[in-house]
Amino acid sequence: MAPRAPLEVTKLRGTRHEIGLAHGRQHARLIHSSIEVYDRLFQDFVGIDWAQARDEAERFGAMIERGFPEILDEMAGIAEGAGLDVADILTLNCRSEISLTRASGGCSAFALHRANTQWLAQNWDWRADQLPNVVVLRIEGDHAAPLISVGEAGMVAKIGMNAHGIGVCLNAIRSRTCGEGLPIHVALRKILESPDMQSAVAVAARQRVCSPAHFLIASGTGQAVGLEVHPGEPGRLEPHHGVVTHTNHLTARAVTCQVEDFPRPDSRPRLARLDALLQQQLPEPSGVNEAALFEILSDHQDEPLSICRHENLAQPVEERMETLFSVVMNLTQRQLALRHGKPCETTETLSVTLDPV
Q1: Is the separation of the CB atoms in 24 and 93 below 8 Å?
Q2: Tens-digit pLDDT profile for residues 131-178
Q3: pLDDT over 90 for what percent of the chain?
Q4: Which of 245, 262, 280, 284 has its CA 20 to 30 A from that of 8?
């Protein structure tokens, strides 16, 4: 495999349509590649092709129109810039709702508060064919404070932080539940445009999210909460000794009594290992820094059920999930550090800082 070019930050400014247009133009090749990846994934897991997936996505347009209509203008801009139909971009942004009835992702995430500093970190685990399509967007719109989103080309958001010090991580949940609310990745963008914790949490608590996932939201002021979202009232996971952890299964009783999930066998071992590392190995503030948190994300205990995930040849090809990037955010300092690929294989780190507002 040819070496990957280092990731760079894509700077997007202006109105929503201008932001989308620039996104589409600058990443047209990667957006088309993302569509090819999800065409294969939908066929592997759901038994439908891209055209059928576009039909499935139509129903989510009305939900976005009710809950976050402005973002549709940005999607239209992305489509125009990439030479695609708006339906293609809508489908990319609703890929979780279409695929996670059968396909389960990975991801290990945690929030940690030590020495008046709020950290937020995670590994994003997914199919390896999506690795080249990871992008880093710095969005400075007319409508919200500057934000950084690390995610997939053509999608409006995933994991990141904003200049207010609000950050969010994502854990996929495999479930057949899907109701009314914002699609997961659209809700993540709305959270990243939130000026404070109250409004960020309200995206899930008041507006709701149409399919299950876990959003780990934190603030540079030292607040953090895990939200197991679904079409109903989200389950809340409060910090324990400054720590919130999550992988890919539901844990809040308020949610597990309403929603059935189907986690992979590695989800619970990864969560137990995260808890052990954070509570036992980093009890003192002096041991907490960016390098130490990347070390946690690089952990291989219980491999192949480990936090840092590598190709598992014992699984069917379409089921193999690997760590595609790792993010460590110091929300208090508005700093985001990213390693593209497995964190155990590289120390090359892309660092981005936002000026506080």
Answers
A1: no
A2: 999 999 999 999 899 999 999 999 999 999 999 999 999 999 998 888
A3: 83
A4: 245
- Is the confidence at residue 1, as pLDDT, over 80? no
Predicted model pTM: 0.95
Distance CA 114, CA 116 (A): 6
CATH top class, domain 11-99: mainly alpha
Q: State the average pLDDT over residues 106-132.
A: 95
Can you tell me which residue has the tokens 């904003």? 162
Q: Are 150 and 327 in contact (CB under 8 A)?
A: yes
Q: Record the tokens describing residue 3, joined without a space.
A: 């070496």
> 108-353 architecture in CATH?
4-Layer Sandwich (3.60)
> Where are any strands of DSSP class E within 230-321?
235-237, 243-246
Question: What is the residue whose two structure tokens read 């294969």?
Answer: 40
**119 closest CA partner among 332, 350, 277, 340:** 332
**Boundaries of every domain in the chain:** 11-99, 108-353
Rounded Cα distance between 216 and 163, Å, is 17
**Lookup: tokens for 247:** 């992988």
Of 81, 87, 85, 89, the closest CA to residue 26 belongs to 81
Distance CA 307, CA 300 (A): 6
- Whether 225 and 237 have beta carbons less than 8 Å apart is answered as yes
**CB-based contact 14:142 (threshold 8 Å):** yes
